[in-house]
Amino acid sequence: MKHNPIPASQVLAWLREHHPELHAVAELERDWCWLSVDLRGDHNKAVRESIKQYGFAYKRRGVHILPSGKGGTWSHSCEKPLRFVKRRGHGGGSRGHKSESRESTSPHHKHTSALRADPLAESTMALDDIAAAFA
User: Fold this and answer.
1) I need a surface site. Which of 5, 8, 69, 127 has the fewest CB within 10 A?
2) What is the distance between the alpha carbons of residues 8 and 14, in angstroms, rounded to a whole number?
3) Contact present, 57 and 80 (Cβ < 8 Å)
4) Would residue 69 count as lying in a domain?
5) Rounded CA gap, 41 and 43, in Å?
6) Does 126 map to a domain?
């Protein structure tokens, strides 16, 4: 579905005309219009479908905390279209990407990779930890 940029003022005017109860809870944050309302249940199905058709999207994971402190659950990106981000490992393989080592620089990851590389290192390290605890 292609995003059609709509000014925030037009999104709010559409809400005021079609869903005045949602217009009352609508908040603008930067380039987004957020609704902090619970639209679960069959009695709200028509409202959900209506706002989806206009371009609102439901935030599936948690809520977006708005400057007012409320939690936004439905959003419209207004004139700011969502970026398309191709995630590595999702569909199509790694065409066009150089194979890079994904080694971590974290000391914890170096420790665990060393353990996987040398099974005897695990027992040696455990003995060192025990000796250090009694010292």
Assistant:
1) 69
2) 10
3) no
4) yes
5) 6
6) yes
DSSP assignment, residue 55? T
Per-residue pLDDT of the chain (135 residues; tens, 9 = 90+): 455 788 889 999 999 999 999 999 898 888 889 898 888 899 999 999 999 998 888 888 888 888 888 888 888 888 776 655 566 665 555 555 554 445 545 555 555 444 455 555 555 556 667 777 776
Distance between CA atoms of residues 66 and 75, nearest Å: 11
What H or E segment, with its residue span, contains residue 33? strand 32-35
Residue 134 is given by DSSP the state H
Token pair 């869903």 is found at: 19
Query: What is the tally of structural domains in the chain?
Result: 2
Q: What is the DSSP string of 62-107?
A: S-EEPTTSPEE-EEE-TTSPPPP-PPTTSSSTTTT----------H
Q: Which domain does 119 fall in, by range?
A: 104-135
Residue 88 lies in a domain: no
